Amino acid sequence: MSCSMKLLTQNQFAGVPHRRFLSRLLCAAAPLERDNEIDRITKIINDHPFPDCPLQPVLQKHIPPPTLSTGLVEDVLGHLFGAHSNGLKALEFFRYTVRHSPCGPTSVAFERTLHILARMRYFEKAWELMDEMRVTHPSLLTLKAMSIMISKIAKFKSYEDTLLAFERMENDVFVDRQFGTDEFNIILRAFCTQRQMKEARSVFNKMHSRFSPDTKTMNILLLGFKESGDVTSVELFYHEMVRRGFKPNTVTYNIRIDAYCKRGCVGDGLRLLEEMEGVDCLPTVETVTTLIHGAGVARNLTKAKELFDGIFTRNMQPDTAAYNAMISALIKANYVKAAIALMDEMELKQVGHDNITYHTLFFGLMRSKEIDGVCKLYHKMVQRNFVPKTRTVVMLMKYFCINGQVDLGLHLWEYLVGKGHCPHGHALDLLVIGLCSRGRVLEAFECSKQMLERGRLMTEAPYRMLGGLLLQAGEADKLRKLSELVKKLKAVLPLSKGMVMD
């Protein structure tokens, strides 16, 4: 160690009582150890060959029942969801914890398992799980669990299927529950989040005489019109809401403000801000954040900065979303360096970065053709052990592969797999094409094999490209290996459009 380094180390310890320093060190280490344990378990589950071998014995070997705390189980399932893990593996892990956890299953763990299954369209397995919990752990059947199931059926199935699912919930699953406004709001939200406003209106007209609508019901419908991008429909329904005798609240005004701000009409948003204050409807940080976004869309950086500074004068504290809105406004105005400085300020003020923070900055750097800046931010993200969400992973993979940085694309893949993630199929498509176009066929094969072994199918086009190149390279055995994995998965996975039909 150099003299200067020794001096620095000594100064760091000088004047700090040993016990206090040790306490801080242990407090910092504890979350890291927990994160490492979550990553370890997630990786065990994702790396397990599917569907060749049963998962339960592996779980018993590597995850002893006494270690299954409530928080650990919930966090692992959260990671499995974020990691795009195979739903049947998540289901096996949940069932293992139901049988062996000393604390018993929680509603959060159940909801996350249900979400993973429904997202992969394992609807029959999801219904089976709900039926099991109805018998063994009825307290786990929450409104959120119902909402997860109904919303995914509305997304992937028909209007009629969704209504039938709602009836099944009432008659067969939540048998001891008297359905009312809360349940009514769930089916309305399912259609509204999918922007299926014709269907939402139909459900409202059909059921509102049975279930008494409340202000939340009307806000859900208002939000649906806002998500469909029609400001006129938002205002028409708002006036209908008032005519029906419902009193607008902060959520109502936030939705209306957001409708205008998404169109860049920040002036109309500010008018509504004055209106809500005039009726003693206090704005929140979310209200001001929405207006900052609107100012950014309108390319009015001065107004965005004024609104951001106004958060402090209103005796509020800017949260991650507020900083993200200001960063987005700076990016839209091409002030990329100022946006990076604001991200650094977040760190100084201990305001956490989230996926939107990274995604917005990556987008700004890419648009400014700052390849070095993208690489620098990417390495910083990895050093912080931050795992980006699918949208950002795909954006980064595409950028790396198009801009001659396929090694960084491969690094991103390995980083995600090392964290126990099973990256999204579109990220694999981009990486396989990028590797194959540079003659790196064996690396493309390994990545594809990793994906298939983890229980996720790949899409047709890259599979065919890779198969042809493997044959040309005299690697018919490797192509047969991929083909065998595909056939095994097809026997247990629900096929979706574009998947390998081998």
From TrEMBL:
Q: What keyword terms does UniProt attach to this protein?
A: Repeat
Q: Which domain of life is it from?
A: Eukaryota
Q: Where are the PPR repeats?
A: 214-248, 249-283, 319-353, 354-388
Q: Which InterPro entries match?
A: Mito_RNA-Proc/Resp (IPR051240), PPR_rpt (IPR002885), TPR-like_helical_dom_sf (IPR011990)
Q: Which residues cross the membrane?
A: none
Keyword Repeat in annotation = yes
UniProt KW 4Fe-4S keyword: no
Membership in a protein family: Belongs to the PPR family. P subfamily.
Stated name of the protein: Pentatricopeptide repeat-containing protein
The organism is: Eucalyptus globulus (Tasmanian blue gum)
